[in-house]
């Protein structure tokens, strides 16, 4: 598989990690999930992300998940692997393992201990050196890391760290950050890197309008993200918004802190993509009222999609 480059675009869906009812890895559901994502038209997959429950996996389980995904895809789509860790040694170890198996690149979020701009820069400079020539994605997700990275700091990192080739943009609000980074590359202040956006796709049409190259996030209907990105790429933003609007109520519900992933897995299981909606403990479960909310949203969504022919 070719390595990730600054030209990456499209939808790199954040994959869930399927578990059986008893919390064990469900390898067969990994296969069916990969098949579904590929059939939905995604450009690539990202595994071991935060909503892939990566912190709940052992080191061996992490390798098993990556190997299974890569084997199922057999080189047809690129795979990015989350390797964030408190230290550089475990990050380097997992990176070498997954790149050796055929991953296209890795993703790194900053540790919560970082506070200043210089500390952010120094961390990613060390990441670049530690990972050698492995292309990596800078994950900018202050809502969970509590680390704020200003556009000027990202510019500084991109200029100094050649293997930083993509920004996973999840700042909120963050549209002005996309604008600033695109202006910087347009003026020659930094090389142009790929910008894929997260936050469940809640701002995807606006992000595409600001110059994003696509999405790197999860949602129980990745068809929404694929449809929006394809519409914008075809020069038809109105169609992109029409598709987005049809899915927005469910996407908004799924974005709730705490139960959002439980909602996503519930719908994926309901769609027959994974066998069980189980989250590995500790993790929330949907209440009967939560499930009723989701079912109502699904019914309304089906009506709207039929109306717009999507």
UniProtKB/TrEMBL annotation:
<dbReference type="GO" id="GO:0008840">
    <property type="term" value="F:4-hydroxy-tetrahydrodipicolinate synthase activity"/>
</dbReference>
<protein>
    <submittedName>
        <fullName>Probable dihydrodipicolinate synthase protein</fullName>
    </submittedName>
</protein>
<dbReference type="InterPro" id="IPR013785">
    <property type="entry name" value="Aldolase_TIM"/>
</dbReference>
<keyword id="KW-0456">Lyase</keyword>
<dbReference type="InterPro" id="IPR002220">
    <property type="entry name" value="DapA-like"/>
</dbReference>
<comment type="similarity">
    <text>Belongs to the DapA family.</text>
</comment>
<dbReference type="Pfam" id="PF00701">
    <property type="entry name" value="DHDPS"/>
</dbReference>
<feature type="binding site">
    <location>
        <position position="216"/>
    </location>
    <ligand>
        <name>pyruvate</name>
    </ligand>
</feature>
<dbReference type="GO" id="GO:0005829">
    <property type="term" value="C:cytosol"/>
</dbReference>
């Amino acid at each position: 598989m070719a390595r990730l480059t600054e030209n990456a675009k499209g939808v790199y869906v954040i994959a869930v990690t399927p578990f059986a009812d008893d919390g064990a890895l469900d390898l067969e559901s990994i296969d069916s999930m990969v098949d579904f994502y590929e059939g939905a038209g995604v450009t690539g997959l990202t595994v071991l992300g935060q909503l892939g429950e990566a912190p709940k996996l052992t080191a061996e389980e992490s390798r098993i998940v990556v190997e299974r995904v890569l084997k199922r895809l057999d080189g047809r789509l690129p795979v990015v692997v989350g390797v964030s860790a408190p230290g550089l040694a475990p990050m380097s170890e997992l990176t070498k393992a997954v790149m050796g198996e055929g991953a296209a690149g890795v993703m790194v979020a900053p540790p919560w201990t970082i506070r200043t701009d210089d500390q952010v820069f120094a961390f990613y400079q060390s990441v670049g050196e530690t990972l050698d020539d492995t292309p990596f994605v800078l994950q900018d997700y202050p809502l969970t890391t509590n680390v704020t990275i200003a556009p000027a700091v990202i510019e500084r990192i991109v200029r100094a760290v050649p293997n930083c080739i993509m920004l996973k943009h999840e700042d909120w609000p963050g549209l002005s950050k996309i604008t600033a980074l695109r202006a910087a590359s347009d003026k020659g202040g930094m090389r142009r890197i790929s910008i894929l956006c997260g936050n469940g796709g809640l701002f995807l049409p606006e992000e595409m309008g600001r110059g994003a190259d696509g999405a790197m996030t999860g949602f129980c209907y990745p068809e929404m993200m694929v449809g929006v990105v394809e519409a914008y790429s075809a020069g038809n933003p109105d169609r992109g918004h029409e598709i987005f609007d049809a899915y927005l109520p469910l996407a908004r519900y799924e974005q709730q802190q705490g139960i959002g992933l439980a909602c996503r897995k519930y719908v994926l299981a309901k769609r027959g993509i994974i066998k069980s909606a189980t989250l590995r403990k500790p993790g929330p479960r949907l209440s009967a009222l939560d499930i009723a909310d989701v079912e109502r949203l699904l019914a309304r969504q089906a009506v709207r999609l039929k109306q717009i022919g999507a």
